[in-house]
Amino acid sequence: MATVPDISDSEWLIMEALWESSPQTASEVAKSLRPSTGWAENTVRTLLSRLVEKSALKTSQNPSGTRTFLPAVRRETCVRAESKTFLDRVFGGAAQPLLIHFAQNTKLTADEVRELKKLLDQNLNS
Known about the structure:
This protein is mainly α. The protein contains 6 helices and 3 strands; from the N terminus they run αβααββααα. Helices cover 63% and strands 10% of the residues.
């Protein structure tokens, strides 16, 4: 399996924008993120370049010849890697303390509890 790029919090915002809609130009990404981040287009261009260097993004050209960006890795792949890193760092790789922590410190709806029970039951039976 190919390695998953290490993506910073700022780069994650760029990736989210492109996972939601791609391909996009640097200007389009900057415009979509400006309301929530206040970033200048040059900041976005720097982050895009870093993500290309990390092989998290691919580039191409649109019909007018402008460089566009699109994800080279799936969101689910990055979420899985980030989750494992978090689990290893915070809970020593053990899932039980993580589940106990969230069960005790998060207000879950009845539907969420049922879904978790279903997933745990499936885990037992597999």
